[in-house]
Design brief:
There is one protein chain. An eight-stranded mixed barrel has the order 12-13-15-16-17-18-19-20, surrounded by five helices. Strands 1, 2, 3, 4, 5, 6 and 7 form a seven-stranded antiparallel sheet that branches. Helix 5 crosses helix 6. It has 17 helices and 20 strands. By secondary structure, the chain is of the alpha/beta class. The protein folds into two domains: about 250 residues, no CATH class; about 250 residues, TIM Barrel, CATH 3.20.20.450. About 40% of the residues lie in helices and about 20% in strands.
């Protein structure tokens, strides 16, 4: 009888040792699946929100760049500027001026647009712009109008097609059987994906979808997304779930021990940079660089960002010091270069005249392995070494001038260029210019902000430009935010510039779309002619009143 009880206890204990790990495997699998779905849905929300912000920022830029405080007749320079603004915009289909009765009295296309207003306009948080849902009756296309006042009884509006607001290129597979609905906060339908004729699932159909809904971050829009549960289950289909179950059945106790070990074997403390490297959270944003004389967009500067799990992007000033102090700056830069290769390889392979700037740290110039790392990342890629520019900051000291010159010379021997960044902000600028043999200098925003004044900033910028010209070094102006800065820089002889006046740093997909659209514009013939997207024509009009020096 005692043996029978022992057998029962043994069987019960054995069953528990097997059942508990199996149950944990099922529980962990379900928890991991739910977490992954949450991350996918949050990423989808972030990207759709970012798409709306990019489109509206494009419209704001077109509206706010129009410099005339009032509007007279629909001819002459005001209309020409409107036409050029619409032409150089990525998402604005038309710019139009309406009178106090909302009748269109002038637009850029020259044809009379029949616009049916579908709801009352709503004020945006900036107190300047309004948004309203409309329909282009001649084409039966839904759109929105972003408007602002233009003098007395006049309104300047940017017409944006609704489908551009809900474009979801990076989530095309996820939304293959799903739907995206965008509406104003008053419920007026604004845009639908994949097409405007669809209707939302109802009743039992809702059981087949996971629903994401809520307001957008900065604008009066409501988002509602239906994602097929079948599509959401796909990320987990490759997981070795049944192998895990089998392992739990055979090695139940060992699995529990292993899970405990994995839980407590992590290092006691990891800084944010090391964690971000482990989780591959570093991503790149790209700020376009323009030739302000020819109007060509000639490339970009890659700017590193740390993307948190919720999609928030952290600026580099929050982690760069930790990266340098912990010795992880090198590994972080290698990861950034791999991101750049993945993001830009196809675009740059087809357009070999495009350039991309990559920031290096002083540690890179103190080690001979730097060039080998560059070759390892970009050697097998479609991005040529001649398309790379490596940027150094003058604010950080270089330990060995001899080693630094050797590293720079090897980088230049690959065909790449070397730029000195933040020129004028540190005390090493002239020393580096004389010793390191850089190809480009980038004048810091600190001096560009005051270049339109007749003070020290303009004097310093003028001196730097003359010095660079004597040394056969190219000049790039950073932090351009105003039209008058462009005019004064052209007058001083600067050829290249970057800043929010042209574009803020863009996420990879937006930058590639920006450049693809630019290269497809009439008058831009891509790699054969070296012509890229033209800056607004009114920038060229400035040169008539501010002749540039040669």
């Amino acid at each position: 009888m005692l043996q029978g009880k022992r057998l029962i206890l043994f069987v019960g204990f054995a069953a528990m040792c097997v059942a508990v790990p199996v149950f944990l495997v099922f529980l962990l699998h379900q928890t991991a699946r739910d977490r992954e779905i949450d991350q996918v849905m949050e990423r989808l929300r972030f990207d759709l929100n970012a798409q709306v912000e990019i489109v509206l920022d494009d419209a704001f830029n077109a509206l706010d760049t129009y410099a005339f405080p009032a509007f007279g007749t629909c001819d002459g320079l005001p209309r020409e500027i409107m036409r050029r603004l619409a032409y150089t915009s990525v998402y604005v289909k038309d710019l139009m001026v309406a009178d106090g009765s909302n009748d269109v009295i002038c637009n850029t296309s020259g044809s009379q647009q029949s616009i049916r207003r579908r709801a009352q306009s709503q004020d945006l948080a900036d107190g300047i712009h309004q948004v309203e849902a409309v329909q282009i009756e001649s084409e039966q296309i839904e759109a929105i109008l972003i408007s602002r006042a233009l003098g007395e009884n006049r309104t300047l509006s940017a017409l944006v097609l609704s489908n551009s607001l809900v474009a979801a290129r990076s989530h095309k597979a996820l939304l293959e059987d799903g739907f995206v609905f965008l509406s104003l906060v008053d419920g007026t339908d604004v845009g639908r994906y994949p097409h405007s004729a669809l209707s939302a699932p109802t009743g039992r159909q809702l059981n087949d979808f996971t629903v994401l809904e809520g307001p957008l971050t900065s604008y009066p829009f409501e988002l509602k997304v239906f994602v097929s549960n079948d599509r959401l289950s796909e990320p987990m289909t490759d997981s070795p779930f049944w192998i895990s179950v089998f392992g739990a059945l055979v090695f139940g106790t060992a699995l529990c021990t292993g899970l405990c070990y994995m839980s407590f074997a992590q290092p006691a403390s990891l800084n944010s940079v090391e964690l971000a490297l482990r989780n591959r959270q570093f991503v790149a944003s790209y700020q376009p660089i323009v030739n302000i004389r020819t109007g060509e967009f000639i490339g970009c500067e890659a700017l590193i960002r740390l993307r948190k799990p919720d999609g928030t992007l952290i600026e580099p000033n929050a982690f760069i010091q930790d990266a340098e102090g912990s010795g992880l700056a090198i590994e972080m830069t290698v990861l950034l270069m791999k991101r750049i290769r993945a993001d830009l390889e196809e675009l740059y392979g087809r357009n070999p005249s495009l350039k991309v700037g990559i920031n290096l740290f002083s540690d890179h110039l103190n080690r001979s392995e730097t060039v080998a790392e560059i070759e390892q990342v970009f050697g097998p890629s479609q991005i040529g070494f001649q398309q790379l520019t490596f940027e150094l900051t003058e604010r950080l000291p270089v330990e060995s001038s001899k080693m630094a010159k050797e590293v720079i010379a090897k980088i230049q021997s690959l065909g790449s260029q070397v730029a000195l960044d933040d020129v004028g902000t540190g005390h090493n600028g002239l020393k580096y210019l004389m010793e390191l043999g850089v190809d480009i200098i980038k004048i810091d925003k600190l001096f560009i902000d005051g270049v339109s004044d007749s003070g020290f900033s303009r004097t310093i910028v003028d001196a730097l430009i003359k010095l660079a010209k004597e040394m056969n070094i190219l000049v790039v102006a950073e932090g351009i935010e105003r039209l008058d800065q462009v005019a004064n820089l052209k007058e001083l002889g600067v050829h290249m510039a970057q800043g929010y006046f042209y574009s803020k740093p863009l996420p990879p997909e937006a930058f590639v779309a920006f450049m693809e659209d630019a290269l497809s514009k009439p008058g831009s013939s891509g790699k054969d002619s070296g012509q890229h997207r033209q800056v607004p024509q009114y920038l060229k009009l400035v040169s008539k009143h501010h002749p540039a020096s040669s």
